[in-house]
């Protein structure tokens, strides 16, 4: 109880509250501009969190990401351009509702059920995380190794691309973390004689390059999104209570699916939304209405992606395994702020954890009034000319890299290189998110791998003989072999259709 | 910038082979079987395997499914191809990063970033009426936030921040 009171004390401080308010406005603005993603919003925010207190820093990340994910629904709904991959699953339905003249209901659903899902998810996290933390305390390096591998494998599975390319991208990320002297032998690896590379590649400049610079590069090669017309919107929350009562099962199922998907290491909001949309369609009484502007799937998937946003912090906080690209960035910030992820965080710094939950609830609560304002102003916000916003993002890329890596111009070179790498990968079907997970988790994977091998004298047997480790290993191999299995199944079905 | 799978797969396999070879040359930790060479060798080996499979076109099927899915979910006018010269514009942002890394110390933050914003805005098709004010106000505000509020030592150069 005293931890909880202490947590309230940590959150209700002027700097934290200002940080929450400012990052809420920032997140809504960036998310609402088509072409700017929630991940980009968070990546560009990191240099600023560097100079904040730990709780204020985490608060900015949580608030900005929740707001940007919701605001990403606005261009999706009005222009059919999904703001984030997480809202792509239901963009069709939302856009069709807009065309039927129900834009305010569609946006209201996105807002209302996102907020409910987020709050529901937060409460689930408060229950699940401490229980899992107890269990995680007994994990050794073998279990941690398999857990990290499982996270990496799941991340490659959900990448909507060739699984082999995803694994290659992930391995590339792991290889990048080999650079420098931060390894079991303390020898300089892959430094090519450069002193700047001795310390390794800092993840944040790499993330800024991959998520911000490469987006600017892509925008230059792509057409400008269509302008949003001025639209008179009716009351946004008016019909929502009726919808909540009409579709209670869909909403609850969306919340639960989102929470379960989010807790899985390496899988986040995108997967939750796609899965929930599919489940909703499968169990609906009117599946033929899906994709034509039907609120049912929108409710379930919208609730699901925000619920998973909260629960994807569970693997991130317990095992430093990100659920998605946003928590990947958040893990970097946690380390930077001395809140090293791990089960000990829950036992030794319980008040910080409670503070985190409180921030989640606050962020989802203020999302409703601020979201309404954002929807009302959206046609004006979206009109911010791309030719003015994108060049400023370029400057932020340079300054952000410079500021996070100890005021070193080498970081600007890193931003440049990773921007080019990210751009080329994206164009050729290599999922960038998989590489980012590799970069964030590489050092941990190597440490657990090498320590385990040293403990076992080079034998691989203990990797499989311990009970929890063997289950995790089986799950990892199942994730690895799943694409082969699904491909075979499709082949088989295709043949049956041909013969029939 | 769309390259063939054979090229990207080959590049990945080569990179993996180099990592494997480089890793195998690393000095071991005395008295231990496993050292700094283990991880790069495992990762390098994995990259060689993936690279060869990609070059052979394995897994292409999944990409086609995903691409068709994306196409069915986006507005048709956004999928129309743009003229080929637009692809070369993608080189501008990295070039501007190099420009920043090279000249920000002598020139100072305000001038460097004003040039970057001006060039960037014009490349995005802005008129001078918009590009010039953004290039003056934007860097000034960013300089204020980072130098005064966050105390990041941005270089002053020829034109230091006025207060």
Brief descriptors of the model:
heterodimer, A: 500 residues, mainly alpha, 23 helices, B: 163 residues
How does this model look, in words?
- The complex is a heterodimer of chains A (about 500) and B (about 160).
- Chain A has about 500 residues and is mostly helical.
- Chain A has one domain.
- Chain A contains 23 helices and no strands.
- The two termini of chain B are about 45 Å apart.
- Chain B is flat and about 60 Å long.
- Chain B has 2 domains: about 5-80; about 85-150, no CATH class.
- Chain B has about 160 residues and is mostly helical.
- Chains A and B meet through helix 9, helix 10, helix 19, helix 20 and helix 21 of A and helix 1, helix 2, helix 3, helix 5 and helix 6 of B.
Cα-atom Rg of chain B, whole angstroms? 24 Å
The helix-and-strand class of chain A reads mainly alpha
Average per-residue pLDDT of chain A, rounded, comes to 85
Order of helices and strands of chain A: HHHHHHHHHHHHHHHHHHHHHHH
Structural class of chain B: mainly alpha
Share in helix of chain B: 55-70%
Element string of chain B (H = helix, E = strand): HHHHHHHH
User: How big a fraction of the residues of chain A is strand?
Assistant: under 5%
Short description:
The complex is a heterodimer of chains A (500) and B (163). Chain A is mostly helical and 500 residues long.
């Amino acid at each position: 109880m005293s931890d909880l009171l202490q947590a309230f004390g940590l959150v209700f401080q002027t700097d934290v509250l200002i940080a929450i308010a400012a990052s809420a406005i920032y997140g809504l603005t960036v998310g609402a501009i088509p072409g700017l993603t929630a991940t980009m919003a968070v990546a560009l925010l990191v240099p600023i969190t560097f100079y904040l207190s730990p709780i204020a820093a985490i608060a900015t990340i949580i608030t900005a990401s929740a707001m940007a994910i919701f605001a990403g629904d606005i261009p999706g709904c009005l222009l059919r351009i999904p703001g984030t991959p997480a809202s792509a699953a239901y963009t069709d339905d939302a856009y069709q509702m807009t065309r039927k003249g129900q834009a305010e209901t569609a946006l209201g659903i996105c807002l209302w059920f996102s907020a409910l899902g987020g709050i529901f998810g937060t409460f689930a996290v408060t229950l699940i995380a401490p229980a899992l933390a107890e269990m995680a305390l007994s994990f050794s390096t073998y279990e941690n190794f398999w857990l990290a591998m499982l996270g990496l494998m799941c991340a490659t599975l959900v990448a909507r691309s060739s699984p082999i390319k995803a694994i290659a991208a992930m391995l590339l990320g792991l290889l990048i973390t080999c650079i420098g002297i931060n390894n079991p032998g303390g020898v300089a690896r892959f430094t090519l004689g450069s002193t700047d590379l001795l310390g390794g590649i800092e993840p944040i400049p790499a993330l800024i390059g991959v998520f911000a610079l490469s987006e600017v590069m892509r925008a230059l090669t792509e057409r400008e999104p269509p302008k949003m017309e001025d639209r008179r919107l009716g009351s946004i929350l008016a019909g929502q209570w009726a919808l909540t009562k009409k579709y209670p099962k869909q909403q609850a199922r969306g919340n639960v699916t989102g929470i379960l998907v989010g807790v899985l290491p390496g899988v986040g909001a995108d997967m939750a939304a796609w899965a929930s949309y599919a489940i909703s369609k499968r169990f609906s009484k009117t599946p033929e209405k899906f994709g034509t502007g039907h609120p049912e799937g929108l409710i379930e998937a919208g609730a699901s992606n925000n619920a998973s946003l909260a629960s994807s912090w569970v693997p991130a906080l317990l095992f430093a395994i990100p659920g998605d690209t946003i928590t990947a960035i958040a893990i970097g910030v946690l380390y930077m702020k001395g809140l090293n992820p791990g089960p000990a965080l829950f036992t030794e710094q319980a008040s910080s954890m409670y503070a985190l939950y409180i921030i989640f609830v606050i962020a989802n609560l203020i999302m409703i009034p601020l979201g309404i304002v954002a929807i009302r102003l959206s046609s004006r916000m979206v009109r911010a000319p791309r030719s003015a916003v994108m060049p400023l993002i370029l400057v932020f890329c340079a300054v952000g890299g410079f500021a996070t890596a100890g005021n070193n111009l080498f970081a600007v070179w890193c931003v440049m290189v990773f921007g080019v790498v990210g751009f080329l990968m994206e164009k050729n079907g290599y999922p960038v998110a998989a590489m980012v997970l590799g970069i964030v988790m590489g050092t941990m994977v190597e440490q657990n791998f090498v320590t385990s091998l040293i403990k076992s004298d080079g034998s691989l047997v203990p990797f499989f003989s311990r009970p929890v480790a063997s289950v995790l290993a089986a799950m990892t191999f199942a994730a690895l072999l799943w694409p082969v299995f699904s491909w075979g199944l499709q082949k088989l079905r295709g043949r049956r259709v041909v013969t029939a | 910038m769309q390259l063939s799978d054979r090229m990207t797969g080959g590049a990945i396999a080569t990179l993996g082979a180099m990592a494997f070879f480089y890793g195998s040359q690393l000095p071991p930790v005395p008295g231990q079987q496993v050292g700094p060479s283990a991880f790069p060798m495992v990762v390098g080996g994995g990259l060689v395997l993936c690279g060869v499979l990609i070059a052979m076109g394995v897994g292409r099927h999944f990409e086609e499914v995903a691409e068709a899915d994306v196409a069915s979910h986006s507005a048709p006018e956004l999928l129309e191809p743009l003229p080929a010269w637009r692809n070369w514009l993608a080189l501008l942002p990295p070039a501007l990063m190099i420009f920043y890394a090279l000249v920000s110390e002598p020139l100072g933050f305000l001038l460097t970033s004003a040039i970057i914003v001006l060039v960037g805005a014009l490349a995005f098709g802005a008129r001078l009426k918009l590009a010039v004010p953004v290039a003056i106000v934007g860097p000034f505000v960013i300089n204020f936030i980072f130098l005064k509020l966050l105390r990041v030592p941005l270089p002053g150069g020829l034109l230091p921040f006025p207060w």
